[in-house]
Specification:
Order of helices and strands of chain A: EEEEEHHHHHEEHHHHHHHHEEEHHH
Structural class of chain A: alpha+beta
Number of strands of chain A: 10
Oligomer: heterodimer
CATH architecture of the largest domain in chain A: Orthogonal Bundle
CATH superfamily of the largest domain in chain A: Cytochrome-c3 Hydrogenase, chain B
Distance between the termini of chain A: 34 Å
Shape of chain B: globular
Largest interface: A-B, 79 and 69 residues
Strand order of the largest sheet of chain A: 3-4-5
Number of domains of chain B: 1
Radius of gyration of chain A: 23 Å
Strand content of chain A: 5-15%
CATH topology of chain B: Beta Polymerase, domain 2
CATH architecture of chain B: 2-Layer Sandwich
Number of domains of chain A: 2
CATH class of the largest domain in chain A: Mainly Alpha
Number of helices of chain B: 4
Helix content of chain A: 40-55%
Number of strands of chain B: 8
Helix content of chain B: 10-25%
Distance between the termini of chain B: 56 Å
């Protein structure tokens, strides 16, 4: 394409697709770019390659049937999505969860955040040619998946929470497993930091690359680690605390310039904070019930079902119809690994959700991607894409 | 880069009644009874842009982030008497730490409301999604095309009368050249020749 650039020169631009099917895009994402030599002059982004109609599908089933679909949003931290959806519905019911349930959700949620960051950073560094870190991170991640298998029976798509509780209580030796694995992760983080923090290639490739100002990030609706990398100290766990996050001692990690380096390092240090939260939660984890006793959402005690007419009806209604949140519209958000994961739930008082809208955190980040890479090198565009951690499952729904 | 660096501390936020009072001074709004868990306000479409600007810049409100835009189709809602659609805007303030929902009712057959893409950057894409899924037009939007569904797709799948089982044959991918050239013009380039370029290193005339 022949164009006259803003400086008045006639130049020949080459148009090229980055993605949608290319390993470097970490998913089915397409950025259609006009290149002036190695520099991206303009980019237009397309999404939707993994669109499977999440919001239409969930209207067809009951509230409990939504949970397996939420696993497939951000599949690198599936249980955080389970928690987000359950929390939205539980708030509509006004259910108080037992303490053990909340502690377990915090532990599993934070560990999910850690493994999500492990994937993001590990893959990001591979884009810069640093393969070793990937293995340092994926080995402890594999150990976490062993724990996921033990606790939920599945590795990737766990469907571990239930509305008003959990699928199962933690197994014997759960605390020891978690303590061992977080120590392993800490070791891996130390090793990777030693490899990259003074590495000239890493610094040259990430410092001041694709900088986003705090003002732009807010206008783009960024949340989570990417917003914090721009120097904005906002985290839902601090600002709108839920699950007793205000009782844990942890810091939010923020960056200064909003470049790729900050986005990587914010995630890196956030893992250390999450590990600290996990240890505090394990210290306070006590035996007790894991499910709410609220008859609107949880099955009654089996002995009661055999001997009591009301309990039998309750069991029958919950199995055959499912839960019925009070009619109304509610938006509820949690701090997921990528930022604010929101569920806007509309209930008509029936057994199926009237509407569920997911607010995926990476949607806002991908919306900004085109503008971010304009003016930078093609080689820098791909690590930038990795650093904003776009998960197509969540982006396209 | 440090873990203890702070930007400004977060504010206390304005409670629902005070927010509603601030809005009713200037606009004809009412509280939405559907939302029992937070503050939701029903707005008239012709006041939307002015009200959003007020939310964004009034120092008592400071709603600096548009969290999401979506819509609800009330076609199948039990005993519903109002307009068929509602467009829902979710805002939050990072400075003051409060949230608000705006709701604009849209009648069937008049599916158009003003766009707010110039007030929040993210509105460009979120409004495209609402158009794609519900068929509500945002007047003044610079690039109102489908975003989740394929560009050949017919209909708006999240409308309650769109059949779940319906299948469509979609074959040709979106060339996207229109979006790219529009973006180049926006950045100050003027297009001389649209022809698809040759791969670098090959001279179209010189090659024998």
């Amino acid at each position: 394409m022949k164009v006259e650039n803003p400086a008045g020169d006639i130049v020949e631009l080459m148009t090229i697709n980055l993605g949608p099917s290319h390993p470097a895009t970490h998913g089915t994402l397409r950025a259609f770019c006009a290149l002036d030599g190695e520099t991206v002059s303009a980019a237009a982004c397309e999404m939707g390659y993994l669109h499977r109609g999440f919001e239409k599908m969930v209207e067809q089933g009951t509230y409990s049937m939504v949970l397996p679909y939420t696993d497939r949003l951000n599949y690198c931290s599936a249980m955080l999505n389970n928690i987000g959806f359950c929390k939205a519905v539980e708030t509509m019911f006004g259910i108080e969860l037992p303490e053990r349930c909340v502690r377990l959700r915090v532990i599993i949620g934070e560990l999910s955040r850690v493994i999500d960051h492990l994937v993001c950073i590990g893959a990001n560094l591979v884009d810069l040619g640093a393969m070793t870190n990937f293995w340092y991170f994926f080995n402890p991640r594999e150990s976490v998946y062993k724990i996921w298998e033990k606790i939920s029976g599945a590795r990737l798509t766990n469907t571990w929470t239930r509305i008003g509780g959990l699928y199962r209580d933690a197994y014997d030796g759960f605390s020891d497993d978690i303590r061992a694995v977080v120590t392993k992760i800490e070791h891996a983080i130390a090793e990777v930091r030693a490899l990259i923090e003074h590495n000239k290639i890493f610094l040259d490739r990430t410092k001041d690359v694709c900088v986003v100002s705090a003002e732009d990030a807010i206008s783009w609706g960024w949340t989570g680690p990417c917003l914090r990398a721009c120097g904005v100290d906002r985290d839902l766990r601090k600002d709108e605390p839920y699950y007793g996050y205000e009782t844990y001692d942890f810091d939010t990690v923020i960056g200064t310039t909003g470049d790729t380096y900050d986005r990587v390092m914010v995630r890196m240090l956030e893992m250390i904070e999450s590990i600290s939260i996990i240890r505090q939660a394990l210290d306070k984890l006590e035996d007790g019930p894991i499910n709410s006793t609220d008859a609107r959402v949880r099955l009654p005690n089996k002995q009661a079902v055999y001997h009591d007419m009301e309990a039998l009806i309750n069991q029958f209604k919950l199995i055959y119809e499912g839960v019925r949140p009070p009619p109304g519209e509610h938006y509820d958000a949690t701090e997921a690994a990528n930022g604010e994961l929101g569920f806007f739930v509309v209930s008509d008082g029936g057994t199926n959700p009237y509407k569920v809208k997911v607010r995926p955190p990476c949607f806002t980040q991908y919306a900004a991607f085109g503008e971010m890479i304009e003016g930078s090198l093609v080689a820098d565009a791909l690590p930038t894409l990795a650093s904003i951690n776009i998960i197509a499952g969540e982006l396209d729904r | 880069m440090s873990t203890d660096a702070m930007t400004q501390p977060i504010g206390d936020g304005l409670d629902a009644d005070a927010t509603l009072a601030a809005l009713t001074e200037r606009f004809s709004v009412e509280r939405d009874p559907q939302d029992k868990w937070g503050l939701s306000v029903i707005v008239q479409a012709d006041q939307l842009r002015e009200l959003v600007g007020f939310l964004r810049y009034d120092e008592r409100l400071c709603y600096d982030m548009l969290v999401d835009v979506t819509a609800v189709d009330y076609l199948a809602y039990p005993a519903w008497r109002g307009a068929r659609y509602a467009v829902v805007y979710l805002f939050k303030s990072l400075v003051l730490n409060h949230r608000i929902k705006l709701k604009v009712f849209v009648e069937e057959g008049e599916e158009a409301i003003p766009s707010i893409h110039d007030i929040y950057k993210i509105a460009n894409w979120t409004e495209r999604e609402v158009w794609d899924q519900y068929g509500i037009v945002f007047d003044g939007h610079p690039n109102l095309k489908r975003i989740l569904n394929h560009h050949e797709f017919v209909g708006h799948p999240l409308r309650k009368d769109y059949p779940v089982q319906k299948r469509q044959h979609l074959s040709i991918n979106d060339p996207m050249l229109d979006e790219l050239t529009a973006r180049l013009r926006q950045l100050g380039f003027s297009i001389i020749d649209h022809e698809a370029t040759t791969p670098s290193g090959q001279d179209p005339e010189g090659a024998a």
